Amino acid sequence: MAVEPLTDQEIQRRLEQLPGWSFADDRLFRTYVFKGHPQAAGLVAEIATIQEELDHHSDLTLGYNKVGVTVNTHSVGGKVTALDFELAGRIEEIAPQHGARAD
Ligand SMILES: C[C@H](O)[C@H](O)[C@H]1CNC2=NC(N)=NC(=O)C2=N1
C-alpha cells in the first residue's frame, strides 16, 4: 500500500481522536510528563519496541521527567501520513501504563 500525505482537513479530523497531540510544521507532536526519570525512560524503551514493529520511527527527546515525541514520514518528503497516526495511537495506548500525564 502506497503511503500518501494526508490533507490538512484529514489531519484535523484524525487529531480529534488524539487529545494532547498537535500538528504544526508538517509533523505530529506531544509531550508527556512523569513522576521521575525511570518512568520517562521506560516509555521511551517501549516506544522503541513499537517503532521497530511498525518500521516507523519518531524523534524522541528524553528529559528528567519528560518525553517529547515528534513524527512525520520521511519517505514522502516529511509529511504527515496514516503511519504517523498509527504510531501516535499506539503510543497513546501504552503511555498511561508508565504514569504519563499531559505536559
Ligand atoms: C527502510 C525503512 O523501512 C525506512 O527507512 C522507514 C523506517 N522508519 C521510518 N520512520 C519514519 N518516521 N518515516 C519513514 O519514512 C521511515 N521509513
Order of helices and strands: HEEHEEHE
Return the average pLDDT rounded to an integer.
97
| Anisotropy-based shape | globular
- Any low-confidence stretches, pLDDT <50, length ≥5? none
Kindly report how far apart the N and C termini lie.
Answer: 35 Å
**Proportion of helical residues:** 25-40%
Quote the beta fraction: 15-25%
> How many strands appear in the DSSP assignment?
5
* Biggest β-sheet strands, sense, barrel: 5 strands, antiparallel
Tell me the Rg in angstroms: 13 Å
Structural class: alpha+beta
Total helix count?
3
Which molecules are bound besides the chains?
ligand H2B
Summarize the structure.
The chain contains 3 helices and 5 strands, in the order αββαββαβ. The chain is an alpha+beta fold. A hairpin with a 3-residue loop joins strand 3 and strand 4.
Account of the protein in words:
With 103 residues, the chain is of the alpha+beta class. The protein is 38% helix and 21% strand. Strands 1, 2, 3, 4 and 5 form a 5-stranded antiparallel β-sheet that branches. A hairpin with a 2-residue loop joins strand 1 and strand 2 (27-33). Helix 2 packs antiparallel against helix 3 (82-94). The longest helix has 18 residues, at 37-54. The chain is globular and about 40 Å long. The model has no long low-confidence stretch (mean pLDDT 97). Bound molecules: the ligand C[C@H](O)[C@H](O)[C@H]1CNC2=NC(N)=NC(=O)C2=N1. The site of the ligand C[C@H](O)[C@H](O)[C@H]1CNC2=NC(N)=NC(=O)C2=N1 has 7 residues, from loops. Residues 55-57, 71, 73-75 line the site of the ligand C[C@H](O)[C@H](O)[C@H]1CNC2=NC(N)=NC(=O)C2=N1.
